[in-house]
Amino acid sequence: MTATTDFTAKFSEAERILDPYERPSSSLLDDELVSIKLRPVDEEVGASDRYVYKAEYDDLYAYLNETFGEPLVKGVTVRHGFGFASVYRLPSGEHILFVEHETGPELIAYLHTIRDVLNAASGAAIALGTFVTTVNQVAHIIRKSIDDYNREPSKRRYYSARKIKVSRRTLQEERELRHIEVETDADDAVTSQEEIEDKPTRRPRT
């Protein structure tokens, strides 16, 4: 899907919020903002949006605050895709923008931040970068909450959902990456940094 003037305004707004803390890397000509949007849906009943609610956002902020510390900026109102933005500093010194939307959260960062790989899974393997790991944990928290509600409705939600739609957004386009099935925990929102960068994952030669 081709991006619209709304995306131009959205990413300009994100740049303004991040600008005091994080700027494009001058050494990377293709450095740009990339967004991953998580949106609960239930297409079986024709409902494209099933929302993320306060109790779930409370859990998400608790995870982010525990992982990265208190945000440098908290609850800034964004006008394009109405919501509330917070800036978190990663252990590497880069920053991400977490945006609370009624339809589901959005995580935004520059490509040089997304490319940052810090955490060694073992001596021989390197884990996914901090941004990708954070996106996947946010998706897991939402999925588990929805799954719990589907099994036993509570005040945490008003509606059930069957899937979480994962979309990649840039200034140029929006592309759906996948749907996470709520009943299972088999899928990650993002499987590789290359997927966010829109580059094919290289397979090792055999």
What does this structure look like?
The structure is a single chain. This protein has 206 residues and is α+β, with helices and mostly antiparallel strands. It has one domain. The chain has helices at 5-18, 54-68, 111-114, 130-151, 193-197, and strands at 33-41, 73-78, 83-89, 95-100, 106-110, 163-169, 174-181. Strands 2-3-4-5-1-6-7 form a seven-stranded antiparallel beta sheet, sandwiched between helices. Helix 2 runs antiparallel to helix 4 (130-151).
- Secondary structure tally: strands: 7
Proportion of beta-strand residues: 15-25%
Give start-end ranges of low-pLDDT stretches.
119-126, 201-206
Summarize the biggest pleated sheet. 7 strands, antiparallel
Mean pLDDT: 86
Q: Given the C-alpha coordinates, what overall shape results?
A: globular
Region (Disordered): 179-206
